[in-house]
Amino acid sequence: xxxxxxxxxxxxxxxxxxxxxxxxxxxxxxxxxxxxxxxxxxxxxxxxxxxxxxxxxxxxxxxxxxxxxxxxxxxxxxxxxxxxxxxxxxxxxxxxxxxxxxxxxxxxxxxxxxxxxxxxxxxxxxxxxxxxxxxxxxxxxxxxxxxxxxxxxxxxxxxxxxxxxxxxxxxxxx
Length: 174
What we know:
Elements: E1 2-12, E2 17-22, E3 29-30, E4 35-39, H1 42-77, H2 83-116, E5 118-120, E6 125-127, E7 137-138, E8 145-158, H3 163-173
Antiparallel strand pairs: 1-8, 2-4, 2-7, 3-6, 4-5, 6-8
Helix pairs in contact: 1-2
């Protein structure tokens, strides 16, 4: 028979960068969620800071557009401004709100990417040898495989037997 792990997980880089550190001992047992590799997080921190600034800028623009649309409403009712000016103010407000939503999504993406710079174990089990070393560029164009984890509790045992042996065994059981 052959003994096999019940689950096997390939640990892959989800972001591009240079591997700074390996945080496990090859052949050791790891827990699900345990940090295994650290990838250079500096570009992702900068992207996060930029996304925060873009969100702040979008919120400021939305505040200005909302204030202008609010000011224009009584002016439009009094026919002090044209309908077109009022529609333009409302459209600017809607666009500014959409910009806030887009900047918020970009911020969440930047936070995710920064989190992916720390590569964690997807399952608990025994980890094999590291497939990359410190200083390696990973994730460029493809999700680079970093290591393999095999869950060894429980284990599968596979037995192979010929068709004639299986038939004899069934007949003996009957």
